[in-house]
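WARN retry 2 of 3 for item q-0093 after timeout on previous attempt; input resubmitted unchanged.
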Amino acid sequence: MMDKKDFIVTENYNLRIKPTGARKIVNEFSNMLNKKVNFQGKEKFLGYIVFLKYRFIEHKMYKKR
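OK item q-0093 returned
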């Protein structure tokens, strides 16, 4: 997971993430979205379910205008 070497401490003692740390976060998030889960009785990728829910909310918002 994340190590101390994945961060930089600035002069103000703020933490900044190095490119290696950002790559680890993106890879972990991508792996999470590519997992299959049970949705409405079928096995679907989590990324697809997020897309479906986003599209549903978007249609609801524009329908109310």
